[in-house]
Design a protein that fits this description.
elongated; about 0% strand; about 240 residues; 10 helices; mainly alpha
Length: about 240
């Protein structure tokens, strides 16, 4: 089967499964909602991060979306049925990842610009400029997309949504809120911390906005490569 019909089939799965639609809605609600609350207590040293503060919570929803999109294939023999229609496992996984990426990017960019507009309205004169704000909104969307794909790759390796979320969510919470505050350390190169540099006005570590997203992209590429290997080499 050609790639485009496979991609279309994966898109149908995403838009018809409530768990995946719910996770996408949660990305918007968590990011924009917590950002709005943070904007009321602006950090004058970094107003841009106040506008996008909710990304720390939105990325958890993004990972849940990517994880459930893949892990549902490993329940009840669904993957065997999928591979009966699409015997080329690499093509199927590429289509799955593409459908996840396009959906997450659309929601992530929308979320980023909603957060920007709401945050600028809340901060008034203290709000970041439009150029910096647009950079943050785009960075927010890209980071959320990469985290969704990161979760998808890990889920393809572990073959369980529960196992994947049990590993990744505590990892994010512990690193982001405990270890991650140690700027200039190895924590700056972890996937959740590196990508968030794009939503800061200033940063003290070695990474900048785009190099930070590049580090997160490398983590994501590694997770997807491991997931593709697992799908192609292990029994369905």
């Amino acid at each position: 089967m050609p790639f485009i019909p496979v991609l279309h089939a994966e898109w149908i799965k995403i838009r018809t499964l409530r768990s995946q639609l719910g996770a996408l809605v949660a990305v918007l609600v968590a990011t924009a909602g917590f950002s709005t609350l943070a904007a009321a207590d602006v950090d004058d040293a970094d107003p841009l991060f106040s506008v996008f503060f909710g990304i720390s919570f939105g990325q958890i929803a993004a990972i849940a979306f990517g994880t459930t999109a893949v892990s549902t294939e490993f329940r009840g023999g669904a993957l065997r049925l999928t591979l009966a229609a699409v015997p080329d496992r690499g093509r199927w996984f590429a289509a799955k990842a593409t459908a996840i990426a396009l959906s997450a990017l659309a929601v992530g960019l929308f979320t980023g610009f909603v957060s920007l507009l709401v945050g600028r309205a809340a901060l008034g004169a203290s709000a970041p400029g439009w150029a910096e704000g647009v950079r943050g909104a785009v960075g927010c969307g890209v980071h959320l997309t990469l985290m969704a794909l990161f979760g998808a790759g890990v889920a393809a390796v572990l073959r369980s949504g529960v196992a994947t979320l049990s590993v990744l969510i505590p990892f994010l919470l512990i690193v982001s809120f405990v270890v991650g505050d140690l700027s200039g350390s190895v924590a700056d190169f972890l996937p959740d911390r590196a990508g968030q540099v794009a939503v800061h006005s200033t940063w003290d570590g070695a990474l900048g906005p785009w190099s930070g997203l590049g580090v997160t992209a490398l983590w994501t590429a590694a997770a997807l490569a491991a997931g593709a290997w697992s799908v192609c080499r292990r029994d369905a």
